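@channel sequence for tomorrow's demo:
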Amino acid sequence: SARNAELYKSHNGALVAQDPKTGQVLALAGSKDYFGEPEPTACTVGKTCQFEGNFNVATQGFRQPGSALKPFVYLTAFQKGYSPKTKIFDVSTEFDLRDTPETSYRPVNFDGQVRGPVSFEEALAQSLNIPAVKTLYLAGFDDALKNLHRFGITSLQERWRYGLSLTLGGGEVTLVDLVNAYATLSQEGIRHNQVMVLEVDDARGTVLEEYRDHAERVAEPQHARLITQILSTPELRAPIFGQSNALTVFPNYDVALKTGTTEDHRDAWTVGYTPSLVVGVWAGNNDNSPMIRQGSSILAAVPIWNSFLKEALREYPSETFEKPEPLVLPPKPMLHGQHEFIPVIRGVAYPQTHSILYYVDRADPLGPPPDNPTTDPQFENWEAAVVDWARTTIPAFLNYNQPLPESIDFSSYLTTSTVRGTRIVPTPMPRAITISALKPETGSFVTLPFTIEASVVAENGIARIELFHNRRLVNSFSLSEPRYYYTYRLEGGVDPQNLFELVVTDRSGKSAVRQTILYH
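structure tokens (generated this afternoon):
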């Protein structure tokens, strides 16, 4: 827009709108004026023009997405057992990536400030960089990258190029891919293949190619719902949006969004979604020249996104996002939502505050704390940063972190509290139900007859197994085994698209479900 060009030296923009329930792209503006000529005022002698015609940024522009990838990193952490209430320290931290000082990395937040202990939901909604880098380390780089690809990002294939800065936009994506990834979030982890052409006919009217929906579940609904709940809560993002937060709220509509701005201010992004519509906006310059420093996503991209969405939503009914299941937080500091605890042993208090790596083994975050936290290559840097912060922030810190005279049960010292309406109590960790090797895999095309198969393990013992076909119960039986290999043969009664759900209930009454979508 002219406003962006005048205020932020952003001469171009792109927009993509998609139906997340079908994958169909509804609108695409890949450039300010694809067929236009460069604007004389945007050019200087000896330099490339900032406004270039014949270039579709939405599909051809591989640009760094800034913080727009963070939701998928946090989702990966949720898959590992962390929760939105997990606390992490937002303090200046050195990351030694390869045990050599020259490769160390010290990220900073967008405002140069640190906030001490913050929850995952606060860190994501406020787009804090230091917690995001820590979260990527905890979640696992390779698992986070796999999730990005599963959700719809087709680039980011050169793994060797990326480090922990990937969560801050240290790789290139296209706007169409980013919109498709957020569409998968909108559909609670079901990705529909993105499509721009619905039908191709020849001169005689013969259909040569036509749209067919292809859907695949790439994440469990609970994890996607947790991300959506964070991104759709205006109060959580208010500290960074300020007065611009009003542009993110649409009366009677649930809307989730995330922004992203590259460190050098070359790219500003906003992607937001409802259950039925996803809209992504990019603002910047086609020749990749930077905007002025004030050209952040909140100022350069959010107003464009708001203008489009408030008009488009008039065509859609009011819908709400499905809420995640109630949280059960494990009885461990940091994971439990508390950043410190004070055990009293034989009448003596031993107040403690440590980095999350003191309590968490990355390979098994819900399991017992590490016997020797220093074996984690990041522990010493993270712990030193927390101690430096605590020394200047906590009164009488000299009394903290004294060695404990004996091992303790963390759950005995975690107090009952309420965090943003969620009641947190010391709760024994639930014993697991695992449904694995579910076949045929989601997205498969099957011919009759075929067999549904899965490996089931329940630590409390399996009590019942049920199979639903398109929400209708087709098979059910009781048993009393810790392990079972399930098979069920289908010889008819299938539709062109079929949802199968395998539900396993253990002897404590806890249930787990796995889904597969099959085509016939």
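heads up for whoever presents: The longest strand covers residues 450-469.
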